[in-house]
Amino acid sequence: MLRRATLLLCLLPAAALAQTTAPGVTTALVTTQGIAGLANRAECTSTTSISNWTIASSVTPVIVNGDRYRLGAATQTTGCTTSGTIPAGISQDVLATGSTQAVNGVFVSAIATTASVGSCSQANDVPIAICVYYLPGGSITNWQLVSQGTFVFQLAIPPKPTISSVTPGDSQLSVSVAAGTATATETATRSVTYGITCTPSLGGGAPSTGGPSNVGTVVCGGLTNSTPYTVTAQASSQAGNSGAVSDVAGPNASTTPLPFLNFWQIYKGQGGVEQGGCSTSGAGALAPVLALLGLLAVRRRRS
Amino acid sequence: MKKALFALALAMALPAAAQSPVAVAKESPRWGSFLISLSPFSPDIDSEFTNSLAPPYVTTFGTNRPLMIQGIFSKSVWITEVGALDVGFGAGWWQVWGQGQYTDASGVVQRGGSTSLMIIPLQIAVTYRFDWFYDRFEIPLAPYLRGAIVDYIWSTSGQGGTSTWNSATGTSYRGSGSTFGMSGTLGLALVLDAFDTGLSRQMDYDVGINRSMLFFDVTKSSVNDFGSQKSWQLAPSYWAWSAGLMFIY
Asked: How far apart are CA B160 and CA A224, in angstroms?
């Protein structure tokens, strides 16, 4: 048992090294959302959503020979094909011009279809493999896999959030948002951002928005004082899937911004004698003395 | 298998033993002391408003006493068989948060908007600590007295940063400044070295700390620019207790 464990420990570094010697890494940027390596539900179903790829090939193509690259996709379970018949591409084969090359305008829906993602409204995320095949002279008989990457169809939506409390401020509302309980088609574990919408309850004004923010309190600013608002919150996943809108909070006193006085204004408004600024008596002269002595103590200690 | 485990444990222990030989040398020379303390704090700003039904501080921040953290770094200027006289410089931090208020035309008060008061307490302190009980009789107690000149640098803030208030005459008052005062402290320190003299010697050998103490003290202070009529009272109205750790090095 001990020998086996020792052997395993010895092999671990070799495995890590092996990963670094794999073919080059292929990265993606979905242009519609700008989230690298992720596609959301809308992009999955869209017929116009495209992705841009940067491939890093493990071979250097010979341009004059008419070498080509083919971008393919596969489920993560099966992985990229390495032998036999070359799989169909997710876009037209491109002329290979270098070991690093951009391939733009690849339809996201084509990737989903080729990688057998299935339903774009399922609750699960679907990671897939992106495969880059090298076709020497454009031939499909002597091809080889030269790079692969991963791509995730983030299809689950975040749950409906709950508005815990609303604190009014001067021309703003601070809204505490809590994550909701996930249903079968949602997930509560994903990193989400919250956006809030504050709408004048009496009409006559455009809604204001706050966020997105991944913290519990989101501020809705630029509001009109003394106007009651209704407040709703909505969560969005990292890829941009929006969940259900929360229950409405307000209109009530908590959702009505007012020109609140702060502590100093309350103090002075009641006739407080403090003037602010540096010491109002001769004691102000002590400030530099205190600072000097502090500095001296530190310098003396260092020396 | 057992032998292998024993060898492993020995191998892990050896470097530590090499770095920390058992200290047998006598105590290192003393230079000064450092202490860090925590104290529940609440300024007596409302002392100006004894007739008010809604004095500003308690109305805004309530009656809680958030903790003030302070540290004092001192040089021993006079060390005798009885004790040590330390002169030091201290600094700290304290902040309280509350809600502002709005009074409508009918007189109804509503609360909202965050507001805060922050204080950075600075001080020059002179401390006399009686080490005699422990040095002479090994009673692990060291009473001390401390007097200090303090300067509280303070700032109030509202939703838009540092507060300002405009009077009816148009004068603008910025809600930040500094206020001077003084304080007196009575304290008692428990000498922790008495409970593990070996560890105490090791600490002196490794990092030069001669003595570690757990202390508790009470402080009475006045921070209103020495009685100025244009200054508020930033000291507590009560004898404020604090507790912390003191290191003699």
From this structure: 16
Handedness of CA B246, B150, B164, B50 (dihedral sign): positive
The rounded mean pLDDT for chain B is 89
CATH number of the domain enclosing B161: 2.40.160.20
Q: Which of A262, A275, A293 sits opposite B100 (nearest CB)?
A: A262
**Residue A266 distance to chain B (closest CA, Å):** 6
* Separation CA B130–CA A198 (nearest Å): 64
Q: Which two tokens stand for residue A60?
A: 């250097």
Chain B residue numbers with beta carbons less than 8 Å from the beta carbon of A287 are: 151, 178, 180
Nearest to A70 by CA among A100, A92, A37: A92
B183-219 pLDDT tens trace? 999 999 999 999 998 888 888 988 899 999 999 999 9
Instruction: Say if B244 falls within a structural domain.
Output: yes
Tokens 């030069």, residue? Answer: B208
Which residue, among B201, B188, B194, has the nearest Cα to B130 in the 3D structure?
B188
Structure token pair of residue B39? 């104290």
Q: For all residues of chain A together, what is the average pLDDT?
A: 78
Q: Cβ(A156)–Cβ(A125) under 8 Å?
A: yes
Interchain contact B59–A (C-beta under 8 A): yes
Range with the poorest average pLDDT among A4-18, B56-70, B143-157:
A4-18
Write the residue in A170, A258, A265 that is nearest to B110 by C-beta. A258
Which amino acid, residue A155?
L
Residue range of the domain that includes B239: 34-248
Say yes or no for a CB contact (<8 Å) between A172 and B57.
no
Residue range A181-186: average pLDDT? 67
The reply to whether B3 falls in a domain is: no
Does any domain span residue B18?
A: no
Total domains in chain B come to 1
Instruction: Closest CB to A270: pick one of B52, B102, B231.
Output: B52
pLDDT tens for B37-87 read 999 999 999 999 988 888 999 999 999 999 999 999 999 999 999 999 999
Q: What is the largest CA-CA distance in chain B?
A: 88
Q: What is the ipTM of this complex?
A: 0.86
Nearest to B60 by CA among B84, B42, B81, B86: B42
pLDDT for res B27: 80
pLDDT at residue A184, rounded to an integer: 59
Token output for A182: 């996930």
Contacts of A265 in chain B (CB under 8 A): 100, 158, 163, 165
Nearest CB to A260; choose among B102, B174, B229: B102
Nearest residue of A to residue B61, measured between CA atoms = A263
Partner-chain contact B112 A258, CB within 8 Å: yes
Residue B81: count of CB within 10 angstroms of its CB: 8
Contact B83, B127 (CB under 8 A): no
